[in-house]
Write a structure and sequence with these properties.
- Two copies of one chain form a homodimer.
- The first copy, chain A, is of the alpha/beta class and 401 residues long.
- Chain A has 14 helices and 13 strands.
- In chain A, the strands form two sheets. Chain A has an eight-stranded mixed β-sheet, sandwiched between helices. In chain A, strands 3, 4, 5, 6 and 7 form a five-stranded antiparallel β-sheet that branches.
- In chain A, α4 crosses α9 and α10 runs parallel beside α12.
- Chain A is globular.
- The interface between A and B is medium-sized, with 38 and 30 residues.
Chain lengths: 401, 401
């Protein structure tokens, strides 16, 4: 597992460039035992040609058997042990809607819920109210004022919203209010450490006001707060690795996680071509690029095998333009698997290829799960990929005399 | 390595069933450089067919180069880091003879030894006295009484016996009496922590009495106590993994270790057919089954290559009946290797196969050491197998948002 102190000690400046190409959820499964996975089914002449000049393997995002959320999957790709460095759900939710979270903000994920006459929860998701209703209720909740702090209430989707508190003296280390079952009332926010007590008091005050504001809004006449958290203050990649980092992603969540890691988020458009264009424009400005493709995951979540194949083929078509920029090290993998067969993230390892001038080719000539199982990288952990890239980029000094 | 806190956090209830089939000591060695191992020599059409639909690999029980005893080998298969969770030798010895050890009992392995006129040890194993002599001497030792505690003395084999103290206020953290060389006297039991001092005093009192009782019994006119320990209070698998666990094993030692891990031990007979019948009877009652085959290890210890091959073929013949029960996840491996060529446990990795609905097949079509070296699981650790099975069984929630 990446040792950040060691990286900090050994990292040296250079002019080499590392490109991390992440196809979100790219790992897949065959639909029949003898069939190909999405990646194997895709016609990917460019990825295959790159694999043939690369060292390949299989990579574990978190640990055997563990299905990662997008947060841990990316933190691990960025070289953080995802079990050591966690980003709270409230923070991820705020990042996911592109909220400009500040380092001292407290962010919570909010869920509208249904309460009965005794204040007991009858539906933890408020009957999955339409997104428009959630947005209207957030408008109402925005009017709640708290002494000495600014509040932000932002709709996410259906019954979900984000609450952010901004001000001095706010601390995380707070319990959630969701009792995780119906027939119980929402719980108060409790501080898990003494300095968080005033923040708990503010949140409970906000919740009491919210209860009044929502009183007539059944089925969304109550709400819960979950994953109340701050920016975790991750060691910053530019400090640890001496890399100027640019992040190119079309979705807010991934831009947000990249920002937490110390990357600069580069404005881009909606398409893969837009992203490639952004990469070209900023090629001279950074040492490390995080290049994120979202739709492999989306099609996997949809259970759309062929759609996922198409996205992969689309990426393959863009690869020559990317490689023409002349990166020194290229890593291609995903943050986690999202097999169309499962319509969800999964625990399966990810195929990975690492290309650089001085790799030892391993005989793998196709970028796919089964070929990569026989690759020269063997079985590796996501968090080891960045240190490995640093080595291949000539950016790590010798350890010891 | 399995992270029990993470498992506790993510484990979810379900109806899926996991079967862990352990062929004790199954890992082997070829008798000639080009020859097959025991597993490769065995005709195993059913295991091979299962391997073809599974993901296979090689698994390390403890650490590279380490030859495990039965305790660590199984603890690791049960998801415990065997270097972190140790079961004392006294406890394992008590479990091995089927002694009904209670959580607060203190158990020690006893060795009869020979003493000269000065009380110095001349033979640490008392000339390997016959088992019947050991049993008769245990009868005599049973008469020793200690204030406030009950004592049990049980013969094991030849010069070995088990001493158990039962009562209030007993603590482990005690030194052994065996100086590990001849020409020295047995050492007193010393407490390694203050609260163990009264227990040390009781044991020293027992040893003084034993010396008198055995005075005329040369060559077994003395004894040593080793591995003085309590049930280590392992985190219980049902609590950590939310699995109701049934253990099926024909030998006391394995039933005992399973019990320490929180499994329910199911009464069974002496044969593999008896064990399969027990599995069938209890199939509805548990989520996880530990199914133990002893004789692969026994024949390995005997140096009986063909005998071990026969046991493996016998297990292969029983496999269809086992699979017909419809497990959701099947793992087949051993606790350690016991190559007939070595007539002992060894440090070699174990072949392992994992079958479940959503595995990525890896092209391995035979269950054997050499085929599994090329398997898609690569090189894994025993303690990661249960978390992996949990993932494949759909029993782990997503980690992080």
């Amino acid at each position: 597992m990446a040792n950040l102190n060691l990286m900090r000690e050994l990292a040296i400046d250079g002019t080499s460039k590392i490109l991390l190409l992440v196809m979100d959820g790219v790992g897949g499964l065959p639909l029949t035992p003898d069939g190909p996975t999405e990646l194997e089914a895709a016609r990917t002449p460019n990825l295959d040609a790159l694999a043939a000049r690369s060292i390949c393997g299989m990579s574990t995002p978190v640990a055997p058997g563990i299905t990662p959320g997008s947060g841990p999957g990316h933190l691990s790709l960025f070289g953080y042990d995802p079990l050591e460095y966690e980003v709270g759900r409230g923070v991820l939710e705020a990042l996911g809607i592109g909220f400009d979270l500040q380092p001292d903000d407290i962010a919570a994920r909010g869920n509208f819920c249904s309460l009965d006459g005794q204040g007991l929860i009858t539906d933890r998701r408020a009957g999955r109210i339409p997104t428009e209703v959630g947005a209207r209720l957030c408008e109402k909740l925005r009017k709640i004022e708290l002494p000495g702090v600014e509040t932000f209430v932002e709709p996410v989707k259906e019954y979900r919203f984000v609450l952010v508190l901004r001000g001095d003296g706010l601390y995380d280390g707070l319990t959630e209010t969701d009792p995780q079952q119906t027939g119980k009332p929402p719980l108060p926010v409790e501080p898990l450490r003494p300095e968080a007590a005033p923040t708990a008091k503010l949140l409970n005050q906000w919740l009491a006001e919210a209860r009044k504001v929502l009183a007539d809004e059944h089925p969304a006449n109550g709400c819960n707060l979950r994953g109340i958290a701050k920016d975790p203050g991750l060691p910053q990649i530019p400090d640890v690795y001496k890399l100027r980092c640019g992040a190119i992603a079309t979705y807010p969540m991934y831009r947000g996680v990249a920002k937490l890691a110390g990357m600069e988020v580069l404005p881009t458009g909606e398409t893969i071509e837009d992203e490639v264009e952004t990469l070209k424009q900023h090629w001279a400005d950074y040492d490390f690029f995080f290049f994120h493709i979202k739709k492999t995951d989306s099609r996997g979540e949809d259970g759309d095998f062929d759609g996922k194949v198409s996205v992969i083929e689309h990426v393959d078509g863009a690869l020559p333009d990317i490689l023409a920029l002349g990166p020194d090290v290229v890593i291609v993998t995903g943050d986690h698997s999202t097999p169309a067969a499962l319509k969800s993230h999964s625990w399966h390892e990810l195929p990975v290829l690492l290309w650089a001038k001085y790799v030892r080719p391993d005989g793998v000539t196709q970028f796919g799960e089964r070929p990569c199982m026989a690759g020269g990288l063997g079985h590796i952990h996501h968090a080891d990929l960045l240190p490995l890239a640093m080595g291949y980029a000539g950016r790590l000094a010798k350890f010891g005399a």
